[in-house]
Amino acid sequence: MANWTREQTIVALNVYCKIPFKNSSARHPLIKKYAEILGRTPAALNLKIGNLGSFDPVLKAKGIVGLAHTSRMDEIVWNEFFNNPEQLAYESEKIIAELCNKTIEESANIDISNLPEGAERISVTRQRVNQQFFHDAV
What we know:
This protein has helices spanning about 5-20, 30-40, 40-55, 55-60, 70-80, 85-100, 105, 130-135. By secondary structure, it is mainly alpha-helical.
């Protein structure tokens, strides 16, 4: 199989943030889901999550180490996004939407088809398109 791309690694970091490290396995439903989206096997995505875990200072503080065979891309993506979760959420969810041939709004399950019509005024609200990422991560 080909090397992991930057985009695939960003999505893997997204999944890393959504699943507690101790619960990561090739049988986990989210790993299966995102592996299919990425065109990778669940085992490959689970290994990538293990690689990313080797950079996590929280795991290191607990004496937990990730896998030893990290790539330079793993380190670059970790350093770019780990301390910037909002950027990770946006970039990763945008990539996921593109891989699924959807808009980011469709991918985030935002339904704009049933908005009420206002007789007096139009009200516009700002909604975070990456809120599902934070919800899943918590």
